[in-house]
Structures are given as structure tokens and as C-alpha cells.
Sequence to fold (248 residues):
Amino acid sequence: MNYMKGILGAAALLLLPNLSGCTSVFGDVQNTINYALQTAKSNDSDLSPADIEAFPYSAQYIRRDGSNRVLVVLGYIDTVGTEKQYSWISRDSITVVTENGRVIKTLGQKAEISAAKLGQHDLVYVNNRENDPLRCIIQSHTNNSTCNTRWERQIDYVDRDRQRSENVVSEFRIVSGPEPMGFPSGEFTVYHVVETGHFTASGVAFENDFYIEADGHVARSKQKILPENEYISLIQVKWVGRDSAGAQ
Fold:
């Protein structure tokens, strides 16, 4: 596992030799993140430019299922093969994992089973990620002339404590760019990549948006990760040590 220097501070980094197998260590990370969020305004969904400048961690705004947007902090980076997976953690302990800007896993989401019971409602796994055209577009720095435009994959997920699988088919195109776009920390030049597709069993259609800087950094996205869910939206607030981080 590879951890970004300065993300959680030296003390927290010393506690992270094997996060995936240690609940108490994850608790230390969560405590650090909670402290970071508490140092920001109580309304952490609307940090001012001064707040962002003073905030010491990489962070994004996230909006899930039409709810109010909240701040999520980069907790750790896990290297899997040649790819980096970024785990973004919220104040309420929900984790969203991204790879090349795409959400590939969630942990801690809940959905109502009945008036008295909530069940797990998480994306567990996405296969065939090595053939994701978004990965090719990012790694070719938006020069997508050699990238496939069609992608098929299977997702595994838990829907209110029930295990499910679904095949997904989508197509990609760069629709605009480079063009300026405003972000909480300033203005950046981005390319707009659109992914249109559907979940084959349920027939649910979607249109995902990815806004990518020329160096392959995904700065903003809107993604439908499960057929039953509304879209997840992510927008970069601050990236610490970006030069050594690559795409998120």
C-alpha cells in the first residue's frame, strides 16, 4: 500500500502499515479525518477560498443520491497492480474508492429495507477495468485516437443486503475541450468526456460526465454506479502533492 506524504500527517502515516486488515488503524484514520473536517467550517459543504487554502488535506465535494453535498478527504492510496486506488472518506464513515477517476467501490452506504431497518447498499467490484476507455484516455493525456470507445464489464454490488450482479455496456466520446471550468480552488482547463450506456438486465440507461485536465487528472465527474441509485457527483476541492499523485 502506498500512502501520499502529507495527506494525513507524519503521525498518522506511521500507523498505516496494513490498513486493510486492521480496524483499529482505520479508526485512527477516521479520527484524523474527523479532526480535519472539524477544523473547517461547520458547514463543510461550502468552504471559502481561505478555508480551502488553509485546509491541509486533499479533498473533494461529493453528492450522493440527490442529498446535500459533503466534503470527503483522501484517507489513503492503495496500489493494485499498476493502478492507484484512492479512498475518499466522509465524516459519516462512508468510503468511496476511485481508480482513474471512476468510482469502483463504496463502503458503508445504507438503504432502507423497511421503516425500521437499513441494509448495506454498496458497489463491491467492477471487472475488466484494464479495458476501460476512460483509463486509456487519461493515460494518453486525452489523445484518444488509439483508445477503444466501447466497454463491457460486470459489476457486483449489495442491494439492501442482497448480493447482485449486473452487466454494463457503454460508449465514450470527447465532446469538448480544452475549455476553462471553475472549481472551488480556482479555474482549470478541462476536456469533457461523456460515457453513455445502460445496465443490461434492468435496462436502466445513464450518461456519465468526466472533466479531465490535459495531464490526465480527473477534476470533476458525475457517475451512475448502480442501477437503483441516482448519480454520484465529485468535484475537486484541493489536491495536496498532486505532482506525484497522478490521476485520481
